[in-house]
Design goal:
- By secondary structure, this protein is an all-alpha fold.
- It is about 80% helix and about 0% strand.
- The chain has a domain of about 25 residues.
- α1 crosses α2.
- This is Ribbon-helix-helix protein CopG domain-containing protein.
Length: about 70
């Protein structure tokens, strides 16, 4: 999928420096960072959804435990 990404000048310069340091293209660095972000927050989302299901499924037991 083609995509145009507009970055502030300072972030673009930092990205270029980091890509050069790592010996990869700016695109590869953006893909890596995006993948890491999505993996981190998809795990967080999965845990939140599981907690919500448990709270719903065991609402009565949790209420009794709170008494």
């Amino acid at each position: 999928m083609a995509m145009t990404l507009r970055l502030p000048d300072d972030l673009d310069a930092d990205l270029k420096k980091q890509a050069e340091y790592e010996g990869v293209s700016q695109q590869a660095l953006i893909v890596k960072a995006t993948r890491e972000y999505v993996e981190r927050y998809s795990k967080q989302r999965a845990v939140t959804e599981a907690v919500d299901r448990i709270k719903t499924q065991y609402a009565e037991a949790l209420r009794r435990l709170g008494e």
